[in-house]
Amino acid sequence: MTGSKEQVYAPGHHPSQTKHHEWRTAENSAAHLIPHLQRLGRERPHLRVLDVGAGSGTITASLAKYLPPDGTILGTDISDDILARAREHAAAQGPDVARRVAFQRASVYELPFPDGAFDVVHAHQVLCHLASPADAVREMARVCAPGGVVALREADLRMWCAWPALDGLERFQRLMADVLVANGGQAEGGRRLLSWVLEAGAERGDVEVGFGTWCYSAPEDRRAWGGSMINRLRTGQMRDKGIELGIVTEEGIEEMIKAWEEWIGADDATLGIVNGEVIWKKK
Amino acid sequence: MTGSKEQVYAPGHHPSQTKHHEWRTAENSAAHLIPHLQRLGRERPHLRVLDVGAGSGTITASLAKYLPPDGTILGTDISDDILARAREHAAAQGPDVARRVAFQRASVYELPFPDGAFDVVHAHQVLCHLASPADAVREMARVCAPGGVVALREADLRMWCAWPALDGLERFQRLMADVLVANGGQAEGGRRLLSWVLEAGAERGDVEVGFGTWCYSAPEDRRAWGGSMINRLRTGQMRDKGIELGIVTEEGIEEMIKAWEEWIGADDATLGIVNGEVIWKKK
């Protein structure tokens, strides 16, 4: 084990951070889990799902659609504020979703549940913020019942596939990765996910590995994603931390904002972001 | 237009090159096209599909399964030798595939077919070998009928997401991209695919863009992929060209082979390769 196990969500929950998060759904961010939810749901009518680090809960509420009629999903997070937002979002999805979804404050390092309390334990973009990701996976596996699955997905921040080639975008990508690492997180989570799962005690034969992507290219996606990145540069924790660490200047940030504006305006613009995906079938 | 339009397949068809190619199927390499094939097949019982640069034809034969009963698929390539292999492969898939599949020699720059001769025109890892990819797309679009689709998929060779972090693998990746460019090809095809399609005359609103991945991590996939890369280093065109250009030495190649052997043996190894995917719906 390396680093601290104190759990802090360094990026914070400023609107500049949460806006993109709320674009996330089961379909665009947890597609690798859906067939397993459906398979287990047929076998286990009271399927119990835990969504660790649920944040504003859009994936949590969206996963609820794939549960059997008596299935339930519990989202956890370390922030009461973001959980209030998650409860509001779930309620707004209508009674069929709302009755199956609940939220509770908890740290991923010490989940307040007995061994095997859930059939599915899911986390999305959580381990990349932790100093000890393998410890978190071990704790998630502890609360996963035999025959169930632990499902993980983490971005690989060194893997942005962007066009047009703009210096400002490349510098932005490095800034984001460097700030994540300075905050005690992991910039290469996508490719390292399997290594953490094995370190947490999985046998290789029980783990399915893949990569999934996010793609931003259509005009409305460019405006939403690029706009969210510009907001982070103007007001987010990344800006403050980058300046504090001396790895970016106010001028450098202005250049990155200009690059994002150019990218948003380019009809041939694409951006692919690579995420590692793992399904650990618990014995 | 830049560069020569003489069409040469620089990597050649040595077994070190074709072995991996024959692992490719519709499911792992043309998943973005399958729903469009099925949709168009319901509307057009005599669906006509053209697979440009079909090589050893494993994707061609595999796509045949998704055609309507009276649908046909024609694969083209510039090499008679590889087409002989493709015919053999298609025949081995049984009569239901064999009767729908044919192959013909043709250059992507001058397809010997009238305008609108096909409902679906597909190319996989073809444009990255060309000096004038937008010209090839324009020619593919010419032979695509109104209401049909042009479907493209190209790897982005700068985007390999590999673990463990091994210097030899990083140098291998750069060698592969540099040799491709030295041969007149395109190393960043994945991210540039949309720009070529727009240059070929598409309107942005008619084009769907995404990214798909290949993942090598399970022991058998590591042996197959890593072994194929080692073969290329020992006997392939990449080795000869790299040495001829002075961008790699015999010693450097031995270090890359050692890195691949280490990667094949590592239980926590993963490798994600990113491919750009485009569907152009022809008006």
UniProtKB/TrEMBL annotation, chains A, B:
Region Disordered: start-end pairs: 1-24
GO MF terms, alphabetically ordered: S-adenosylmethionine-dependent methyltransferase activity
SUPFAM superfamilies xrefs: S-adenosyl-L-methionine-dependent methyltransferases (SSF53335)
UniProt-listed InterPro entries: Methyltransf_11, Methyltransf_Superfamily, SAM-dependent_MTases_sf
Domain Methyltransferase type: 50-151
Pfam families in the record: Methyltransf_11
PANTHER family per UniProt: METHYLTRANSFERASE, N6-ADENOSINE-METHYLTRANSFERASE TMT1A
Name assigned to this protein: Methyltransferase type 11 domain-containing protein
Organism, as annotated: Thermothelomyces thermophilus (strain ATCC 42464 / BCRC 31852 / DSM 1799)
